[in-house]
Amino acid sequence: MKTLTRLSSWLFLFALCWPPLALASADLEINTPAITSLKNGMQQRHNELAGFYASGAVGLTRDGLVAVRDPAAAPLAQRQAMNSLVAAENQDRKALYREIARANGHPEWEDEVRSTFAQRWISKAAGGWWYQNASGAWAKK
Amino acid sequence: MFLLEYYIHSATVINDSKCELVRIRNAKVTSSIPVIGTRTGPAATSCRPFSLSAFLLCAAISPAHGQQISLSIEDIVSPAFQVQGIDARLDKDSLSAHIRTISLQGKTWRNVRLSCPKIRIGRDTLACDQGTLQEKQSWPVRFSYTASTKQLNLDLLPSASERWRFDARLEKNWKVSAVIENGNITYAKSWLAANIPAPSSGKISGKLHFGGSGAKLLAADADLLLSGLAFSDASGLHAGEKISGRIQFKAHQARGELIWQGNASWEQGEIYWHPIYISGGGVKFSASGRSSPQRIALEQGVLHWPAIGEVRASAIWDVNTHQFATAEMEGKELKLGALHATLLLPFLEKTALAKSAADGRISFSSRIASGEIQSLDLSLDHASLKDKEGRFALREVNFTLPWRAKASSVADLAIGSGQLLALPVDGFKTAIHLQDRNVRIPRLAIPILGGSLNIENFQATQAKEGWQWEFEGGLTPVSMEQLSSALHWPKMHGTLAGVVPRVHYESGRLAMDGALLVKAFDGTAVIQDLVLLDTLGHAPRMQASIDMRNLDLDLLTRAFSFGNMQGRIDVEVKGLELSNWKPVAFDAAVRSSPGDYPRKISQRAVQNISALGGAGAAAAIQRSFLGFFEQFGYRRLGLSCVLRNSVCLMDGIEPAPNGYVIVKGGGIPAITVIGYNRSVSWDELITRLQRVTQGNAPPIVQ
Q: Which end of chain A is more exposed for a tag (fewer CB within 10 A), N or C?
């Protein structure tokens, strides 16, 4: 389990640092204190979310966020924490896309940044995780 | 062999005094022997009670043993239920019946089959000891019916340990009782509305008794034990697991009302009702009241929760308007710690109280009339509230709130002591004025470090977009020694005081009208155009302009172990922008203040200033003869930094060959410091500043 968590942490870090493909004109690796803070917060939270990704309770959505997919896959005592983590993660993800677009000097690029990250998260997700395909249906990686 | 056919094309049977209609269409009884009589054609309508069972029995006891009889009915319709496609066949002593659909209370069962290979038929009774009832599942069943007493006994045995026994007396004044042993609670799933969490497992045991007349319920009595109950809705936001408990209920009719009384106890298990999670059980609820078609009155409801305390309630629910005509709720001396952790904290997630813990006692009472809250009395007794991350703490909190709708009220708050960040706060009292959704604090003085943080004209209003608030105030002189010590900063001298202009908060944006005036380091600082965005988020942003005048360099350099300097400086920071409390942009300049005052700079300060300008400048001074002097005179000094994209573009007070002048010499001995690096990474500059202010290491002078 520890190895899995560590592996998924590395994948998460790699996903954060992976060179942009779709949005060639925007620097997705741009760093500002706000972006650094958001990434740090997300990285810390990732370790708590990894178990929910692995169990299928939480999945990656096609719009660059995360969502509770199968709540029954999480023990009852953890559902409050799971919902809180999902809400906090989505708040940070939205802020991250906004900050990256703003740091590039093009706030209007937010949707494109989000779309590129959505593909990034899904392509770098670990095997067994759930994600939404292009039609919005859940699929297991 | 004879063939007899008994038809009822259409019978309308009117039931009991209310004459509710039960319609039977196209009933036909076919027998292979002669029977008592025949009847065909439309049936008469009467108000006589009708029993289908009696009809069946008449048909069943007619044949001599060993003969056949069959019954078919197209449908039976009543306001309470519908049965369609009944086909029954008695062949010798074997009964088989098929019902196409049964609809009751909005639920439908299809293809229900009843078979009994050996039915006992007496003059007055019909009984089966080893039958099978089949719908989606197949259950062993025993039943008997006595025509004279209209007594039906039905015994369902789904498994060796599970039993559902029903005894019914099907007269005008009817009685039904049930005994359940280890009943599978998931059968209830089909009776529940779609928006109610459905049970997925669990057992129920106990007894139920109901009695009535016609459609009217006259008495009910239930005592049920639940074990291993699990339920959930589709979203998983409302679910329970491993729940056990007991439900007792009694009711009877009196003067047109149903008088009822019930107890429920939750003994163990866990429940998640978003966002609240409760586990462990030990909770009991008892209620009594009376119901009529117009209203449901809860005369007394008591919730006993050992971890929190006892809450009592009474209410009248108006069935026509779907609201509480009146309601009262009261809790005395409740344990605030458990109440806060279990019921309040889940709702405080996005607030500054998200990681807080509370202790003490809380009492409340509230009253609702015509669906709207009329009053709320709340008191905290010897309570405390602290942040688990140590950002704040309030101790010995006593609070009384007498809130009344459409009237002004005054709440009294007293704090024994507290802590804000690392700053200790002494006790204080204040009055909070409330009217509807407006909160006003005319004056609040918080004693802090020998001074006082004053908040005046605080006003908060709840709007559609959330809470909006504003205040103005100030800080009376606070000892900088105490402040720096409390915050674990370098020791500072002097006092800190300030005037806070009107500050207002709306939709996550905190802004300040006018200028914030702070007195520190024997000078003044004016902060203007202050705006805070996303204050509690992960990416808080701040914008401001700062103008500081006549700061005492001696106090300043002593505080930061920079090496002693004497003189006065002005600091101007325009367009300051912080993101997550770190600077991302500003135009800053430090200059000697105009005026006449002693100007001295120590050897170490010279080195530190020159170090900020880059290693080249520092090395040049260290190599010169000036290294022999402890202090120098200077005429003026200045350094500026324009921060953009994490790079600081530096300049001094005037140009110099290949650089810029930071300190212009004057007096004897005098010194001039020249900076050579114009572009320095902000992170590198911070590292240099930290290096020169750390550890009080003596300078190395060569």
A: N
Bond prior to B402 in cis (omega within 30° of 0): no
ipTM: 0.73
Q: Does A90 touch chain B (CB under 8 A)?
A: no
Which residue in chain A is spatially nearest to B269 when comparing CA positions?
A76
CB contact under 8 A, B579 and A72: no
Sign of torsion, CA B626 B628 B634 B639? Answer: positive
* Residue B237 to residue A71, Cβ atoms within 8 A: yes
Confidence of residue B67 (pLDDT cuts 50, 70, 90): low
Q: Copy the structure tokens of residue B695.
A: 């550890």
Note the residue count of chain A.
Answer: 141
Task: Write phi, then psi, for B175 (nearest 5 degrees).
Answer: -140, 140
- pLDDT given for residue B20 in this prediction: 45
* Helix (H/G/I), strand (E/B), else coil: A37: helix
Cβ atoms of residues B512 and B587 within 8 Å: no
Nearest residue in B to A99, CA atom: B539
Q: CB of B400 within 8 A of CB of B364?
A: no
A 13-42 residues with CB < 8 A to B = 32-34, 36-38, 41
Task: Inform me whether the pLDDT recorded for B169 exceeds 80.
Answer: yes
Nearest to A96 by CA among A34, A50, A25, A44: A34
Cα(B87)–Cα(B372) distance, integer angstroms = 56
Between CA B29 and CA B59 the distance in angstroms is 7
Touching check for A102 and chain B: CB below 8 Å? no
Shortest CA distance from A92: residue in chain B: B538
* Tokens coding B185: 């609670």
B579/A68 CB distance under 8 A: no
Cβ–Cβ gap A71/B239 under 8 Å? yes
Q: Classify each residue of B51-68 as buried b or exposed e, where b means 16 or more C-beta atoms within 10 Å of its C-beta.
A: ebeebbbebbbbbeeeeb
DSSP 8-state symbol, A9: H
By the 10 Å C-beta count (0-12 exposed, 13-18 middle, 19+ buried), B604 is classed as: buried
Report the C-alpha gap between A122 and A15 in whole angstroms: 9
> And the tokens for B42?
């439309």
Task: Count A/B contacts: CB-CB distance under 8 Å.
Answer: 69
Q: pTM for this structure?
A: 0.74
Residues 44-83 of A with CB under 8 A from B: 68, 70-72, 74, 76-77, 79-80, 83
